[in-house]
Amino acid sequence: TPVKEADSFWVQAASYSNKINADKARDTLLAEEIPGEVFTYTSSNGTTYYRLRVGPYTTKSEAEYWNKRICLVDDFAHTQSYVTNSAIPLSK
Question: Which ranges of 1-92 would DSSP assign to H, the alpha helix?
């Protein structure tokens, strides 16, 4: 029988096509005492993205709290950040 992976919630604050911009955005969050990490993702068409994520959190409500905090930071007010559960595979 398959083993269910433990829930691991992240806030994807933003995604960039340039690592320098992703690192600057991470520094902006850190200045607001919101630590984030930059993850590299390559799409099926070969495009590389640098995802700025905050977490992981064990509950969705905790991740939603941090998502609201991120949205209060001027540079992230319009980035359409969202909560994702890395234990659930993304739809193809």
Answer: 19-31, 60-71
**Do 34 and 53 touch, CB atoms closer than 8 A?**
no
Specify whether the CB–CB gap between 16 and 76 falls below 8 A: no
Q: How far apart are CA 56 and CA 8, in angstroms?
A: 6
Write the burial class of residue 67 (CB in 10 Å: 0-12 exposed, 13-18 middle, 19+ buried).
buried
For residue 11, the surrounding DSSP H or E stretch is strand 9-16
Write out pLDDT tens, residues 5-62: 778 999 999 999 999 999 999 999 999 999 999 999 999 999 999 999 999 999 999 9
Other Cβ atoms within 10 Å of 74 Cβ, number? 8
Are 41 and 49 in contact, with CB atoms under 8 Å apart?
yes
Paired tokens of 66: 């941090």
